[in-house]
Amino acid sequence: MRQFIWAAGLAVLAGLSSGNAFAQTKNSAQEQDDYYPLILLGDALEVCSSMAWQRCFDTDWLDVDSMRSDRYLNLSEKSITPLLAGKNWPMRTQVRDDLKEALELLKDRIKQDVVSERVFLEEFTRRATRYMYDQLSEQDWNMMIDYLELPAASDAVYGVNLKATKTGAARDYLEMIVGEAKQAADGETPHVLVVTAAQRDSLDLVNYYLQTFASAGADASWLPLDVAVMAAREADACDELDSYRETEMGAYRRGVVHRELNARQVAFCEAGDVLTQLRNADAVYFADGNPDLLRPLFVTSRNEPNELAVAMAERVAKNKLVVAAAGRSANVLTGKAVLTGGSSREALREGVFAARVPGLGCHKDNTCPRNLNEHSVTYHPMGGIGLFRWGTIDTRMGEQGNHGRLLRVAATNRVPMAVGVDAATALAVNLRSGDFKVAGERGVFVAVGAQQNERAVAAGFHYLMAGSTGRFSNDGVSNVSFADEAEVVQLEPTTNFLGSRGMYDALRLLCRERDSVEVKQDEFTLTLLGGEAATKQKAGAECQVQNARIGMQYAPPEKF
């Protein structure tokens, strides 16, 4: 059976590559040149809601009595005692004792047992207990919140309000996904299947996403599959799902906090049919999260596509399914090396590693893998789902200065092309022709032919703003049409190209009749080269280029 699935997966993906599978279809979507069944969002899909009022330009409509507006924590002994159990703090009794003291101090200060998560964070990071906050890893913090969290009301609504959403790009993304899905549904109301498996707590935002897509005019349902369900199924222990969430996802007490969703997931674990849900969908949406949690749903331990991956590829090939993914979940859609995390600084200084993401603060709880730290760049060398066949993907590109890590992973794995999508940006791709368009507010970075040595990496590159179009091929991009305008960045220019948008601020200089730009940050150097082969065009205040060169170097001072 395994060999059959593997062969079927290769056949379908080969069909995607050649275009033959698309050519055999005869539905309405196939007839349209503007059909884009693959949509990569550069960041999480965040719209105005009662849980995220900061994203709203109008909050008069909020009703805190009927809408979920925060998570609430219980600081009574009933919640704190299980949190401080020895099994949660192996070899770290001093940290546990310090945490107990900090929680007692905080509770004595606020004089109440129940407090919102926002207030708790504000109080916990004040001077008196800040020392404790600094001792906790990300995993520690998440475990603490999980143990203290009160159950969420099963009938609570998020109060999603698209019209009041500050960021127009978020509304545009939804319209794009629903619009493409409507083509796959032959004009009928599309059905969107929401996958939250990449999120550590795969239950927390389920209703938010369902209500968001419903507000955009789609029917929506949840696929209750994640790595905890897979592990519990394999062990025939679905009634112990909560314990598998702890070991597989680092999530605690989710069955208590989200009782209704937990019951649905347990029932799915016992008898759910994922292929039936997929066949009934016109679009699949992968919520932002950890690629290490999402990839196992589609790729076996032997790096073979499983039945779900094959079925999804078949429906995409027949123009019956649109696939959209946000943030780091988009990274998993590639058929090349999957970039999973880390910083450009570490990529240039230490290289990249075929390993799981270490986790922020892993040095605090002694969970960092050997030779890795919390910022080490990690990847899966054998690729992901395989829908985007041209190269490695990365997201939040310009905002986090991810160019160094993307170039390193591409060069290490000899990936011919690497694509980085900025936040507030979407890349939509026609998998039959390779045609693409850039939408939203920022741009897309495309690197070609990345090469490296121990301390430097270089590649050819293109940078295209929202409104641009082009075509992907095995050699790079062609048929490029630049955008005429772009949103104005409301930020001061920076030379920080390792953790911020400094690369794009440097790029602007190439559009000022310069053929080369060099920027330094600490022990690192960024070099951009234009020359006769490069094509440049401004879009508002931003600079778009085609066929330019980029180099990044780590040059520490010599020690004598």
UniProtKB/TrEMBL annotation:
The keyword Signal applies. Keywords: Signal. Residues 1-23 form the signal peptide. It comes from the Bacteria. This is Cyanophycinase. It comes from Pseudidiomarina sediminum.
